[in-house]
Amino acid sequence: MPDDMSNGSKNDIVNLVTPSMLTGNKRRNERGSINDIPFILLFIVIKIIGRSKTKQTNSKLPPGPRKLPLIGNIHQLEALPHQSLAKLAQQYGPLMHMRLGEISCIVVSSQEMAKEVIYKNLV
C-alpha cells in the first residue's frame, strides 16, 4: 500500500468519526445536566427533611448557640474559652448545648446547676 493512500484513509476515518462522536457527547452532556436537576432537588428536599427531624429529636437538649456544619461552635470559643463560655451562659442560661466539631457537649456554668445535674444522675 502506498503511503499516500494509507494516510488518506486514516484522515477520512478520523474526519468521519470525530464529528459524530463530538456531537453525540455534546447531546449527552446537555441531556445529562437536565436529567440531574430532579436528583439535585430530591437531595435538597431530603436534607431539609432530615434537619427538621433532627431538630425534633434534639428538642430535649438544652438551648445553645447556633452551630456551623462540621466545626459546630468551635468558632465561638476565643483565646480564653472560659470567658467565651461565660458570655454564652449569660445569653443561653447556666445549662447549654454546644457542638465542638462532631462532639456534642452539655456545658454547666453555675454551681447550683452542677449540683442538680450530679444529683439527678446519681439518684
UniProtKB/TrEMBL annotation:
Highest taxon in the source lineage: Eukaryota
One of the record's GO molecular function terms: heme binding
Record Pfam families: p450
Gene3D superfamilies per record: Cytochrome P450 (1.10.630.10)
Entry-linked SUPFAM superfamilies: Cytochrome P450
Protein name in UniProt: Cytochrome P450 family 71 protein
Organism annotation: Medicago truncatula
Classification lineage: Eukaryota, Viridiplantae, Streptophyta, Embryophyta, Tracheophyta
